[in-house]
Design brief:
The protein is an alpha/beta fold. It has 4 domains: 170 residues, Rossmann fold (3-Layer(aba) Sandwich); 39 residues, no CATH class; 113 residues, Arc Repressor Mutant, subunit A; 111 residues, Trna Endonuclease, Chain: A, domain 1 (3-Layer(aba) Sandwich), CATH 3.40.1350. The protein contains 20 helices and 12 strands. The strands form 3 sheets. The chain has a 5-stranded parallel sheet with strand order 2-3-4-1-5, with helices on both faces. It has a 5-stranded mixed sheet with strand order 8-9-10-11-12, with helices on both faces. Strand 8 and strand 9 form a beta hairpin.
Amino acid sequence: MKIIGRNREKDALSRSLLSKKPEFVVVYGRRRVGKTFLIKEYFNGQFTFYATGLSDEKTTGQLKAFHTSLRTYGCAEAKAPKDWFEAFMRLREVLETENVYRDPVSGRRVVFLDELPWMDTARSDFKSALEYFWNSWASSQQDLMLIVCGSATSWIIRHMLKERKGFHNRVTRRIQLFPFRLKDCGDLLENNDIVMTREQMIECYMIFGGIPYYLNLLDPRLSLAQNVDELMFKPYGDLHDEYNELFYSLFKKPEKHMAIIKALAETKNGKTRKELSEVKTIGGGSALTRDLEELEQCGFIRRYTNYTMPKNGAYYQLVDPFVLFSLKFVNSRKRKSWIEYIHSPSYNAWRGNAFEICCVNHIPQIKAALGIAGVDTTEYAWRSEMSNPGSQIDLLIDRKDGVINLCEMKYTDGIFEMDKPEYERLMNRLASFEKEAKPNKALHMTLISVNGLSNGKYASVFQNVITGEQLFAN
C-alpha cells in the first residue's frame, strides 16, 4: 500500500537505516495513528526479526508469543523461554546466524518490536532484559537497527525517553507520529476513491480527526453522514466503542484521564488547572500534573497561555476532534443517528467548536496563508478579566514583525457575511483587548472561514481572510 505523507518520518527512518552506527529508534504516537503501518510498509514487511506485544496478556503469554516469533526466524528451541533474559539471549543467537536476513539497501539487521509497552507486564523483568540486551551486545553492533514502537505514549516517554537510568541516552532517534493534517487527509480519501468536496473533507476531519485508520474505514459508496452512522452510531460499527478502547489502550488506569477530558469538553475555551482540580472526580496534586502531561503528550489536549497572564494564565483545551465528537454525540446516546443531529442546535454549536479546533491544529497553514511562514510567532488565547459581558479571543498569533493577528473562526454553510450585530460584538472584543492587554503592536483582524467572506458593508474590518481551501496547504 502507498504511504500517504509522512515525509519527515520516512526521512528519519532513511537516515537511521543508512547511518554507520547502531541505531535504537523509538516510534510512538496515539492508537490508530499509523505507526505499525508506516514501519511495515517502509521496510516492505521484511525484517531480520519482528515480534509484537499482546494486549491484556500476562508475562507467560507474552513470552509464548515472543517464542513463536523466534521460531519463525530460525530459533530451534522447542520450549518458550522462562524469562525475558532468556528470550533476548535467544534473539541474539538468531541475529548472529550467518545467513540472517539483511536489509537489501543498507545491509543492516533490522529488528522491529511492536507494541513494546504491552510486553512490560506487572512484575516481569522485561525492561531490565531489554536494557541488558542493548547495553551488553546490541549497542556494539554497527549494522543493527532496533525499532521499538507503542501506542501507550505515556509509557514510551516515561520509560524510554525520560528515565534517567536504564535507557537514558541509549535512544538514538525518536519519531513521534501525529494525526494527519487536512492535506494528507484529502490525499488519503482520494487514494481510497472517496469523493468529497473540500467543505465535506473539513467536516470529516472535524469528526474523525486526522487518524488514518478511521479514514480508511470510510465506505466510498456512502455519504459522510451515512458513514458516520455506520461506523459510530450503529452498535456493530467499527468505531462504536472506540472512545473507551482508546483510553484503556493508552493508560493502565484511565479513569482520571477520562474525567479530565469530559470536564474540558464542557467548554470550548478550556479550563485552568485550578478549575480542573475542583472537579471531584479529578482532584489535584502531582497526579493531576502527571495526567495533564500525559494527555498533552498524546495530543488530546493543548496547554496554552492567556495573553495578559503569561505566567499563571495557562489553560488546558481539548483539541482532539474524534474525542470531542464521541463525547458530544456518540457517548450521550441521545439520538440513534447522526443524520438526526444535523442542523440541530447541538450540531451547530459543535460545528463551531470543532472548526476552531481544526484551525488550532493548522497553525502552520494559517501562517503560510498570511505570508509569515518564516516569522517567529507565539500563539495565545485571551479572556477578559474586566468586560461584562465577558470577551474572549480564541486564537492570537503574536508575531516578531510587530503585528498580532486576532483570529475569528467561522464555519458556515455558505459564504460568511458580517452583519451589524456580529460587527459590534467583534468591535467590543477588540476594544476590550486593547484596553486590558495594551499591546504595543498593530492589530490585524483575521477571518478564517470555510467558504470565505461576503463583500458586504462590514467586510473591511478584516485585514486578512483565510479560506478553508488554504488550510489544505502542505
